[in-house]
Design brief:
By secondary structure, the chain is α+β, with helices and mostly antiparallel strands. It has 2 helices and 8 strands.
């Protein structure tokens, strides 16, 4: 019975993860093996996109990664990221997390936002 309940919880979580979300800083959508990040603010927004398993290893010290925190979306701009560039991505991965904050690169200076998106 416990396995059945666990399986149903996982299934519901998978079904409820949207393919398009918005934090107020970034609008994020996934389709056709790519993720689109749209910054609809007047400031750059730095981000890290990774699988939940990858973040379990490195979060919360995101900027202490060897590659640092040097990815950003310019003000009022949109970028596209192929699934293969998502940190920790393996074929068949179902979700990604977009961690993002105001400012250009470097450690976050204010609130850190997280969006979970279904990869389809």
């Amino acid at each position: 019975m416990r396995r059945l309940v666990s399986g149903l919880v996982i299934l519901l979580a998978a079904c409820s993860t949207p393919t398009s979300v918005d934090s107020g800083l970034l609008a994020v959508s996934a389709s056709s093996n790519k993720v689109t990040l749209s910054n609809h603010t007047a400031e750059p927004v730095s981000y890290l996109i990774a699988t939940p398993a990858y973040l379990a290893l490195y979060d919360p010290g995101l900027c202490r990664l060897p590659e640092g925190c040097n990815e950003s979306v310019a003000a009022n701009s949109t970028i596209t990221i192929p699934f293969e560039r998502i940190r920790g991505y393996q074929p068949g991965e179902r979700t990604a997390v977009v961690v993002h904050w105001r400012g250009l690169a470097g450690p976050p200076v204010d609130s850190v936002h997280r969006l979970v998106i279904a990869l389809r």
